[in-house]
């Protein structure tokens, strides 16, 4: 990894919403509708952040019928695990949220 690519990756993580999405996906795979509900924001907003994270290689998507589920791509960036260990837990937020099973 080069300094430039590392800088780009860290810029992706410097946004509060994207960092929160990463923390959520660190716990489990989620559909866009779940992320929208948990973060209490709009679907277009979350979709834009997910697009940036996907383009950056941090997130992968899996299509199930008409729904797309997002998960953390742990393979491309092994050092990401060290960053994730430093994030505050969002497990409580996830546990309080009822998955919609989109």
Overview of this protein structure:
The structure is a single chain. The chain is of the alpha+beta class and 102 residues long. The protein is 56% helix and 14% strand. It has helices at 3-13, 16-27, 32-39, 43-55, 80-86, 91-96, and strands at residues 30-31, 59-64, 67-72. A 3-stranded antiparallel sheet has the order 1-3-2. Strand 2 and strand 3 (67-72) form a beta hairpin. The longest helix has 13 residues, at 43-55. The radius of gyration is 13 Å and the shape is globular.
Termini, distance in Å? 37 Å
The description of the largest β-sheet is: 3 strands, antiparallel
The proportion of residues in beta strands is 5-15%
Helix content, binned percent: 55-70%
Q: Strand order across the biggest sheet? A: 1-3-2
Large-scale geometry? globular
Report Rg: 13 Å
Low-confidence blocks of residues: none
The quaternary state of the protein chains shown equals single chain
Q: Please, what is the average pLDDT?
A: 90
Query: Structural class given helices, strands, pairing?
Result: alpha+beta
- The count of DSSP E runs of length 2 or more, i.e. the number of strands, is 3
Helical segment tally?
6
Keywords:
3-stranded antiparallel β-sheet; alpha+beta; 6 helices; 14% strand
Protein topology:
Elements (H helix, E strand, L loop, with lengths): L2 H11 L2 H12 L2 E2 H8 L3 H13 L3 E6 L2 E6 L7 H7 L4 H6 L6
Describe the structure in brief.
With 102 residues, the protein is α+β, with helices and mostly antiparallel strands. It has 6 helices and 3 strands; from the N terminus they run H-H-E-H-H-E-E-H-H. The protein is 56% helix and 14% strand.
């Amino acid at each position: 990894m080069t300094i430039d690519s590392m800088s780009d990756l860290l810029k992706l993580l410097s946004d509060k919403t994207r960092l929160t999405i990463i923390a959520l996906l660190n716990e489990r795979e989620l559909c866009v509708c779940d992320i929208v509900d948990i973060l209490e924001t709009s679907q277009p907003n979350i979709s834009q952040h997910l697009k940036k994270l996907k383009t950056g290689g941090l997130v992968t998507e899996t299509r199930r019928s008409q729904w797309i589920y997002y998960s953390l791509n742990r393979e491309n960036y092994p050092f990401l695990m060290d960053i994730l260990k430093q994030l505050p837990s969002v497990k409580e937020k996830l546990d309080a949220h009822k998955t919609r099973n989109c």
